[in-house]
Amino acid sequence: MAFTKRNIIYGCIAVLVIAIIAVVYFSYDPAQNSYFPKCPFYVLTGYKCPGCGSQRAIHALLNGNVISAFTENMLLVLAIPYILLGVVLDIKKFHGLRIQRLRKTLYGQKAILAVLIIIIGFWILRNVF
Q1: pLDDT tens-digit profile of 16-29?
Q2: What is the pTM of this model?
Q3: How far, CA to CA in Å, does 8 sit from each of 3, 11, 30, 87, 97?
Q4: Are 79 and 58 in contact (CB under 8 A)?
């Protein structure tokens, strides 16, 4: 894979933006500061969406509190390794047959449907219990 100057610049900008966001979420607790955005779905309905608690979970993870993060948004904590693997597979562009099969299994059409079902199930269950 050839890296163009544009790709390198975009990559550096993305890393810089992610680093700035990580510092903000590390330093400031979204539960204690009103300048973090509130969930519009929760504000309008009083029900938690699948993403509710994600900001607090990210803050907890960045501060090393996995249990608190898991309490805030279990789905986010469990999804992070899955998302990171997808990013690595996408960036590296592995060509091995086993890797291609793994990628198709974990990120193909059936996997997308499974992830959708998991998200909807989590959404329903977190509002029932």
Answers
A1: 999 999 999 999 99
A2: 0.85
A3: 7, 5, 32, 16, 28
A4: no
